[in-house]
């Protein structure tokens, strides 16, 4: 597997994350927005990654991981999610605080320390947000899910994943008592909100929040 820099690892992880829960490949413009860099920077980096055999790309087209790129991306994702889990379970962080810390640490930890963390945590299958943690050999298990924002009225399922992109969303769900494994039922769906019931409580979530939650099919 070719050597990669922290910058390339960030690119690989972002390309992978875009397609983890939906099939559409990422475009260079979306990649630039996600990483907060200029489109010209993305163009140069993608060329470098393509030359290294990590991505497949045609000018102005979508960016797709090669098999080699996917393996490397999964290794970075494994590091990130194990670190997030370790910070919550062992270091007293809350789930809305760990993303930025993990972004830094994922490039610094040795494989030996990462393995020790994995063993210490008894090889967790998911991180604090429900994202599956790849095994050391790249195996990854996911349950069939539906986006809460797209679930039909009457659909019932357990929350299995919540996007960590917006810490405010995580804090609002925490305040509402909605977290991983909470069983919810969609009771109404409007253009700008989703109503659901969890136990004896009823919640009305903005559509943007419902679009950050996946529940079982």
Extended strand count = 8
Largest sheet report: 6 strands, antiparallel
Structural class, please? Answer: alpha+beta
Q: Would you identify the regions where 5 or more consecutive residues have pLDDT less than 50? A: none
The H/E string reads: HHHEEHHHEEHEEEHE
Please, how many helices?
Answer: 8
Mean pLDDT: 93
State which percent range the strand residues make up: 15-25%
Secondary structure: helix percent = 40-55%
Q: How are strands sequenced across the largest beta sheet?
A: 3-8-4-5-6-7
- The global form is globular
How large, in whole angstroms, is the Cα Rg? 18 Å
Spatial gap, N to C terminus:
36 Å
Short description:
With 217 residues, the protein is of the alpha+beta class. It has helices at 6-20, 28-35, 39-51, 67-91, 98-105, 111-120, 167-176, 207-210; strands at residues 55-57, 63-65, 145-147, 156-162, 183-189, 193-198, 201-206, 213-216. α1 crosses α4 (67-91) and α2 packs across α3.
